[in-house]
Design brief:
3 helices
């Protein structure tokens, strides 16, 4: 499944960056999923911040529904 389809010549900097990206993604993949409660809390906090910044339900409706 992890077999590359093509091989590209990479310089040392590109190899370093790709390895760093791979390590970051692998760490995220292995991290436990957030609980439903923490996701809901995060969404509520984002909504409160959006309202403080002037986003009203009417504006959001206009954005989403054209």
């Amino acid at each position: 499944m992890n077999t590359p389809n093509a091989s590209l010549p990479l310089d040392a900097e590109r190899k370093r960056r790709l390895l760093a990206i791979y390590a970051m993604l692998e760490k995220k993949r292995q991290a436990p999923a957030p609980s439903a409660e923490s996701v809901i809390q995060g969404l509520q906090e984002m909504g409160e911040e959006a309202q403080r910044n002037g986003l009203t339900p009417e504006i959001l409706d206009d954005i989403l529904n054209g």
